Predict the 3D structure of the following.
Amino acid sequence: MKRAVYPGSFDPITNGHIYIAERAAAIFDELWVSILVNPQKHYLFSVEERYAMARDAFSAFPNIRVDHFTGLLVDYLRQQDLQVIVRGLRAMSDFEYEFQMALMNRQLAPEVETIFIVTDAKYSYLSSSAIRDIFQFGGSIESMVPPCVIRHLHRRFFSDSQ
Ligand code: ADP
């Protein structure tokens, strides 16, 4: 059974992420969408919130599982017996960073393969950071994220008393 992981921050998950996960899920028996918790990094959403949004987004996909992890990605792959890393490519600007990461991960774990799935042209400009900015300044994001993300953004920006 071939099992792959699609790791990322997913802060929050977008339709671009969902597109990549759906295509990967059609290739592998099981796809784990795994949310990275990097203690050095500041996220808009907690891991619990990012997890809840991703769970909601993939609830109709029987072979997509959502998880979270901290520490080195290759250690996580070994612990969970996952063989392949899936990453998405939007533009040449993604490539250099992704290429370096793939080489580093191969250095750390030669048995692990990284594969890249090219996004759809309509998602090539889409990123979690763009969603956070557009929403905050009142722009429409309905076509870019699933409804549960819009609900979480509303709660975060308009209901939180922090
Ligand atoms: P990270 O902090 O690991 O880059 P992200 O959540 O930003 O986490 O992205 C996770 C993966 O999804 C990366 O491989 C990124 O290139 C890819 N990705 C992000 N947005 C899109 C998109 N609109 N279309 C396709 N892939 C995307």
In short: The chain has one domain: 3-159. The chain has a mean pLDDT of 96.
